[in-house]
Structure formats: structure tokens, C-alpha cells
Amino acid sequence: MRIFVPKETHPDETRVPLIPDTAKKLVGRGAEIIIESGLGAACGLDDAAYTDVGATIADDAGATVSEADMVLRLRKPSEADVQKLREGCIHVSFLDPFNEHPLVNAMASQSVSAISMEMIPRTTLAQKMDALSSQANLAGYVAVILASERLAKVLPMMMTPAGTIAPSRVFVIGVGVAGLQAIATAKRLGARVEAFDTRPVVEEQVQSLGAKFVKVDLGETGQTDQGYAKELTEEQQAMQREAMAKVCAQSDIVITTAQLFGRKAPVIVTKEMVADMKPGSVIVDLAAESGGNVEGTQAGQEVEVDGVRIVGLNNIPGHAAQHASQMYSANLGALVEHFWDDEEKTFVLDQEDEIIQGCLITHKGEVCNEMIKEQMNA
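-> C-alpha cells emitted (378 positions)
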């Protein structure tokens, strides 16, 4: 089976989809791995690092992609890229299928079997393939590092001959994978950490990391089957903001991680809440690329509003590009190996498998994912 891995072309992308360690494993299983020259350059990996493990370099990337049985990417392809894929090709990458309907339709029209890495089910069996979680984990860590660099204070308490320095206060909003890592990182750096989530079930996890859970009685909330927070009513959002405003006003750093799967991120920190924060405070909005959790966030930029720095940088995991690439590559490798037939030396697209049912978006000329079909037809 010919597996082609092209270079990432997005201007903000510093990660690479496949590293030599993963390529070596797939070659060992009998896959023919072909990479575009310069694939790993963003992470300091030259072509020789790939050829040393048995991969080959494409002389003509355009011709190679049109002959590939499987294409592995990180970012979603352009519609022009899709036109180059042969009928029956299996394409694996992040696709943003809830918002990229024209791209999904292009995949179906080209009879490409498109697997979306966002749609990998959050199950124990699929945990090694869960790229959303692996990248969110790093985003939570990076968010704290970015904020600490921009804050004109140290995070830990310090006892010095010149007096005692009080610990900085960090408030994490949203206790998913990114939020938990942000809490753990801020605690390791010595900050005083508080956290809030609409799901009371995460209180124990917050406390286990040494942070304080901010309790707000919102009534019925809960989470989806995939573990994501459900959208709140307008009344619940108002109650949430009122409680959070008090904590934000006392905090030196606020990190927001709240996202709704497949939908625009909710605004949870209003301009009034920002105005009440101390001058010199820092907000890192991890939802900037999906609309932002903070009024005033500008995707891809850092802005100052009422003396508060709002960091809305794109591709936060890319600030730890080597480890982000290592983790994403491992996710891809785990997916391919899980469905690999060692006798036939090929990837078996088993539509009866629950993992494939969750992440396969198009197949044999149709949109086959029930969740995406329902959303597209709504």
C-alpha cells in the first residue's frame, strides 16, 4: 500500500504530520511510505532521517499524490488538493467537517474515503488515536508558559531578604484536557490556581491537582457522550459570568479553554469582565481560532484592552512543535496500525468498526457519517 505524506503548507503551521519513528513502524508493517521532500524541515528533520528508516522521497509530489492509496496530513486539504486524489484514496487529516461543508462535498464527489481526526471517538480503545486530546494537552501547557512570559510577575510565592512575594493567581475556565494540563502546569510553577467548568463531575479532578474548584449552581448541565460540555441556556450563561467576574477581577492570569464540538466557541468573558481585571493581567484564549471565549479576542493576535493583554494566537500546540508533531504522528500511526492487515499489507476500512463509524466522513461517493449528514441537512 502506497502511503504519501505531503508537506504542510499553512503559513502558521510549524508541526509535521509524520516523524521518522512512526514511518519506521509503518515500513516495518509492510507499508510503502513516500514523503514530500522537506516534510520534516519545520521540526529540524531532514529527508535523510526518513530515508534511513525506509521511506522514499517523492520526485514529483503532484504525481505521487494522485497515485497514492492513502494520504496522511495534519491540516485539512484545499479543494484543489482534493481534485488530485484518485478515486478510492483514503485521506486522513483534521477536516473540521461541521464547518467545511464544501470540502466534505468535494471529498464525496471525488469518491475519496475521508477520515477526520477530530471525529475519532473518545473511547479507551481509540485513546492512542485521539489527536484532539494530544494537541489540547500541549495547548494547556503552552498557554501557561505564554501567560507567564507576558506577566510582569513571578508565579510562585518567594521568601526573600527583601520580603515575601505572594503567588500569582491563575484562573482556568474549562476543565477538559487543555484545562487540566493548564492547571497542572500553573501549580508546578507555584501559582495559586482556581478553575471552573459547567460540569460538576470534574471538581474532583481539579482538587486532585491542588487547585480550587469554583462552584456555581447552574441547575441541569452535564456533558455529551463524547465528554464535551453541553451548551448552556442564556440564563445559565448569565449566572456563570456573574460568578466568574469576581474571580477574574482577582486573577493575574485567566486561561479560557471552552469550546463546543463542531460549533462556534461561547463568549464567557465579556468586555465588562475584562475592564474589571487588574492592569497588567493576561488572558490566553485557547478558543481564539473557533470564535474566541473572550470579547476583544482577535484570532492570531495579541491585543491590549483596558490594560489587560489578550492573547489569541493561532496554532498554540505549534509553539511546542517537536512534541506536538511527535504526538500527532503517534496518533496517525496508531490509527493505521490498528486497521492494518499484515498479510495483505494494507489498511482495512472496516465500516462495521465503531472507530471507523465515528471518524469516516465520506466513502464511495457519499457523505456517510450520520452526524455530519444530519448537520448538513439541517
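The two ends are 38 Å apart (CA to CA).
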